[in-house]
Design goal:
The radius of gyration is 15 Å and the shape is globular. Strand 4, helix 3 and strand 5 form a beta-alpha-beta unit. The chain has a seven-stranded mixed sheet, sandwiched between helices. The two termini are about 15 Å apart. The protein is α+β, with helices and mostly antiparallel strands and about 170 residues long. It has four helices and seven strands. The protein has one domain: Gcn5-related N-acetyltransferase (GNAT) (Aminopeptidase).
Amino acid sequence: MRCIADTAPSQPTAPLPSDLPRATLRGFRPLDVPFIASIVEEALHERYDPSLYGSLSAEWPDGFLVAADPDEVPIGFLLGVSQVVGEARVLMFAVARGHRAQGVGARLMDAFLDRCRARGFRRVTLEVRVSNATAIRFYARYRFSVTDLLRAYYSDGENGYQMARPA
């Protein structure tokens, strides 16, 4: 595997501003599907069969984290899977537009990485659109570095980067 970008220095994550309602982190529930599907369509520009979320959750329930508002409505999520021994993969990760830049994504990523370490994973990978500079900067703060260019990776033909970090 080749590295085509340097890892950013590790930085502490910022706490949520105190004047914002705190999101709670919990596991995925089947009733979350319509909300998560909406977040996926808006943030990731993809549409998946709704049954996909439940089937992926069944493989590693602790790898599917949901951030919910005080009314229990999902406002973000991170869906992780393990398809390679010793390795976790962030398959989908998004926060609803009105809840971005409030620490929700950082809380999801922190919790996911904690679960990866607890499960003994040695490495975490993910894919990101090359045009998504905000996400790439976010991942770099978590010491993810670009390891490969994935040509025409997304359904609309856009290239992606594969990124990885030690768990």
